[in-house]
Amino acid sequence: MAGLAVLAVAVAATAVWLGRGEEETAVATFAVKRGPMVISVTESGTIQNRNQEIVKCEVEGGSQILWLVEEGTHVRKGDRLIELDSSRLEDEKAKQQIVVLNAEAAYIRAREDLAVTKSQTESDLAKAELTYKFAQWDLKKYIQGEYPQELQQANAQITIAKEELQRAEDKLEWSRRLAKEGYLTRTELQADELAAKRSQIDLKLAEGKLSLLEEYTNKRNVEQYTSDVEQARMALERVKRKASADIVQAEAELKAKESEYKRQKANLAKTEAQILKCKIFAPVGGMVVYATTGKGNWRGNAEPLDEGQLVRQRQELIHLPTTTSMVAEIKIHESSLRKVAVGQPVRVQVDALPGRTFYGKVGKIGLLPDAQSVWMNPDLKVYNTEIYVDGNGVDLRPGMTCKAQIIVEQYADALYVPMQAVLRVAGRPTVFLSDPDGPVSRAVKIGLDNNRMVRVLEGLAEGEEVLLAPPLAQAATFAEKAPPPSPAGIVGAATSRPTSQPTSQPDGAGGKSPPKLDLTQLRTMTPEQRRKWFQSLTPAQRAEMRKRRPRGDRSGDRPGRNRRGEP
Fold first, then answer.
1. Is 561 helix (H, G, I), strand (E, B) or coil?
2. What single DSSP character describes residue 410?
3. Who is most buried in 108, 157, 252, 279, counting CB within 10 A?
4. pLDDT at 496
């Protein structure tokens, strides 16, 4: 409707009313007709197979086609379709095999290192535990065995020393008596005195040894053995911690090497699988159709599939139809989307089969606009639509150009007028009827259109003459005076006549002078009011108005702007 309104503006600009009392210019009219009417949407598209198996390139990074089956060939399941260049993958396989061998050797070395570490830690742990036990036993042996023996020995030495001293003193006393009586010589007496002194010294030494043992030696030995026990315990704890850390590190190293080995083996298996994918075989039987047939890209038509061509990963290469049913792929403009629905009947005509018509129905409508069309033209929104063609489509081939006519509605008896005859005034569809006193506006209720004719539901009768070029000035005046549209949006056949133009007076030249309007009032009008007032004038009145206005006032040249270009 917006496009038709612009067209109506262009047409109306050529038809200028000269006002009452003058001979009016002849305008084109259309008599309201009644008869059968078809509301349809017609779009061009391409014929494709409805159900098909798509063969894609599965080689990472893509590859070059070395051999390609000829298009149109009927193949069976398992037949070779495409062979891609695998030289790059063969080189990668050779390098990967070396990497796998090195990873396997590192994995085996890490596994053996873990076994050695476990054995070494067990030995160190057993040795540390034994040392700790020995230290405990040494402490217990000294406290319960060695020290009591040494103490008993020291006391025994003291006792013996005391006995020997007593004997030496008794002998010395008898020797002195005998020496006084002359029975012993002086030398013998001195020997007995020396023996007595030796016994006294031995007793003192034994007593000192006991004191040293109790006060120093015993305490030192107890502290030493206790320290040895603590040091052995701490050494055992260190050995345990070190053993645990060594085992954990060795196990982590083994896991890392094992993971690296598995990863490299997986890469080798992946490379081998990629080499196998360079030879593509038919998953099902059928006729070979290149994926580029009937397809296009943003640069234009897609390059045909051929030997030596580089293909990328996941690119569609070949279509193998699984059934003979066909589909017409078209694009519906967003302006027609509200008319089209799934299940509507469709007539399909194929350029390659003139004179034949195929029938089908709308099978699928895209939920979002076609991304490629939006990228090429952001203002163009079209939706991919599939038309399911009835029958087996034996004569149809993929890639054929077709034209699909979607039947929206069909009427056996309907009133209709050209779309250009309908304007929207104050939000309501309006037509202008020819009348001796001037065009008469009439609000109508309309239905769907087929891009040429629009169905009239209410407001017109068969045979009435409507203007094909409605007067826009009268339409604007009628829009200002017309009441707001009803809430339900249903407009009856109310008829109104546009408001008459401002009062005119003869200008002496057979024409009409401009309406009497003080220039002060003209300057106080809004730009929109000034524009509408100026458009309501005839060409002669506009020329006279230009002569009469002051030189500094040029607001009439471009309605809606002052001479400084401000709104």
1. coil
2. E
3. 157
4. 40
Q: How far apart are CA 81 and CA 425, in angstroms?
A: 64
Task: State which CATH number among 3.40.50.150, 2.30.40.10, 2.40.30.170, 3.30.70.2470 fits the domain covering 50-83+284-411.
Answer: 2.40.30.170
Q: Using CA of residue 462, residue 464, residue 469, residue 470, what is the dihedral sign?
A: negative
- Inter-residue contact 440 to 432 (CB < 8 Å): yes
Question: Over the chain, what is the mean pLDDT?
Answer: 81
CA 360 to chain centroid: 37
**Residue 441 corresponds to which tokens in the numbers above?**
């506006």
Question: Phi/psi class of residue 294: alpha, beta or left (left: φ > 0; alpha: ψ in -120 to 50)?
Answer: left
CA distance 38 to 41: 10
Whether the CB-CB separation of 274 and 60 falls below 8 Å is answered with yes
Instruction: Report phi then psi at 550, rounded to 5.
Output: -65, 155
Q: Give the tens place of pLDDT for each residue, 480-534.
A: 554 444 433 333 333 344 433 333 333 433 344 444 444 545 555 666 666 666 6
Q: What is the dihedral of CA 93, 98, 99, 104, to 10 degrees?
A: 120
Cβ 397 vs Cβ 375: under 8 Å: no
Beta strands in 256-392 (DSSP E): 279-281, 286-287, 289-290, 296-297, 300-301, 310-311, 316-321, 326-333, 345-350, 357-365, 382-389
- Model pTM score: 0.51
- The residues of the chain that CATH labels 2.40.30.170 are 50-83+284-411
What φ, ψ does residue 412 adopt, rounded to 5°? -80, -30
- pLDDT given for residue 546 in this prediction: 63
Query: Which tens digit of pLDDT belongs to each residue from 269-317?
Result: 999 999 999 999 999 988 898 888 756 544 444 578 899 999 999 999 9
Domain 1-31+422-499: give its CATH architecture: Beta Barrel (2.40)
The CATH code for residues 88-277 is 1.10.287
